[in-house]
Amino acid sequence: MIQVCILMNAEKVSILDVVKKLEKIPGVVETFPTFGRFDIVAFCEVEKREDITPLIRKINAIEGVYKTESLIEL
């Protein structure tokens, strides 16, 4: 398994809604809102590197998410 940490910025009124939607996406292991530069953190696991881009696209498609930054295990 490859671990991916996705840091997100979201519209303030929808942060908890985004967290709930993230929890339903296969591959998302843990999510939580944060204070600081990013609003939400999602820890994810994928089988292979080719699975990372589709996962990030699903996350970017969630209403309320306007920016992501991904940290991918080497």
UniProtKB/TrEMBL annotation:
InterPro entries: Dimeric_a/b-barrel, Tscrpt_reg_AsnC/Lrp_C. It holds the Pfam family AsnC_trans_reg. Residues 12-72 form the Transcription regulator AsnC/Lrp ligand binding domain. Pathway: Amino-acid biosynthesis. This is Transcription regulator AsnC/Lrp ligand binding domain-containing protein.
